[in-house]
Design goal:
Rossmann fold; NAD binding; three-stranded mixed sheet; six-stranded parallel sheet; 13 helices; globular; 293 residues; N-(1-d-carboxylethyl)-l-norvaline Dehydrogenase, domain 2; 6-PGluconate_DH-like_C_sf; 2 domains; alpha/beta; oxidoreductase activity
């Protein structure tokens, strides 16, 4: 099996890296906090001291980091040079469409192909390889990385064409829709409770009939159980970052998104209260508190 570079073994990157190692790939891993990647050495990972050391000339490097700034910090000139002619950089991060387009142009000038492949999955779904990937970039590179994405986390892969930013737009759309669903469910459950209806009975009826998707089943249960804090797999801070990116993209395309403004404010309130270890589901607490619950 080929050697792949892997940058970023956080809550989501770790299970993906683990899956790839179990599938037989050799990984050269860089993580800003080295200690968090140490257990992967037991599976055969090679830990290196810089982003560029992950690269094999003409090979593939996967990056999965927190935001635009972190992506720029690892997608250095040194990394691109180390990848060299024919190399592929696969960005699995939730970042702005703009940064993907900028990096795509920069890489192309140096003979390296950039593919955006943001991950649709919480860590447990990635570990079970039942996540979804959306990919955009040059066709040949997308075909070459398909097996890697499937081995790492993806049950389904959706191709968004050649424009590097398109996959990131869809990823932001998806996260916005999840945030909107969190707000909607919190308001609906508050309405039930305030009117003498058992919210759990309402949840069971609605999520086994009209709203049977995993977002409603899984996140709805978290809202009912008030599982808003404690070892979040997707933090309120990252949720706010994503809503900021949604609204940034909306402003640049003159797209009104009033619900995005609301959930952005909900997340800002959570962080303003200095709630520690808040999952982004904590945005639902705003509707509950507004209802006196």
């Amino acid at each position: 099996m080929e050697t792949i570079g892997f940058i970023g073994t956080g809550h989501l990157g770790y299970p993906i890296a683990e899956n790839l190692l179990k599938a037989g790939y050799t990984l050269r891993i860089y993580n800003r906090t080295r200690e968090k990647a140490l257990p992967l050495e037991q599976l055969g990972a090679i830990l290196v001291g810089s982003p560029e050391e992950t690269a094999v000339s003409g090979g593939i490097v996967l990056t999965l980091v927190a935001d635009d700034h972190a992506l720029q910090a690892v997608a250095t000139e040194a990394l691109v040079k180390a990848l060299g002619q024919g190399g592929i950089h696969v960005s699995m991060s939730t970042v702005s469409p703009d940064i993907s387009r900028e990096l795509s142009a920069h890489h192309r000038e140096r003979g390296v192909t950039f593919v955006a492949a943001p991950v649709f999955a919480r860590p447990e779904a990635a570990a079970a390889r039942v996540g979804n990937a959306v990919i955009s970039g040059p066709a040949a590179a997308k075909e070459k990385i398909r097996a890697i994405l499937e081995a790492g986390f993806a049950k389904n892969i959706f191709d968004l064409g050649e424009d590097a930013g398109s996959a990131n737009v869809l990823k932001l759309m998806g996260n916005f829709m999840i945030a909107g669903a969190l707000e909607m469910m919190a308001e609906a459950f508050a309405l039930a409770e305030k009117n003498g209806v058992d919210p759990r009975a309402a949840y069971e009826m609605l999520t086994t009939t009209l709203f049977s998707g995993p977002v409603f089943r899984n996140y709805g249960a978290m809202i009912l159980d008030r599982k808003f804090t404690g070892s979040p797999s997707f933090s309120a801070a990252l949720g706010l970052k994503d809503m900021d990116l949604v609204l940034q993209t909306a402003r640049r395309s003159h797209t009104p998104m009033p619900l995005a403004n609301l959930v952005q404010n909900r997340l800002t309130t959570i962080l303003a209260k200095d709630v520690h270890d808040a999952d982004w589901t904590a945005l639902a607490s705003g509707a509950l508190e507004d209802a006196g619950l």
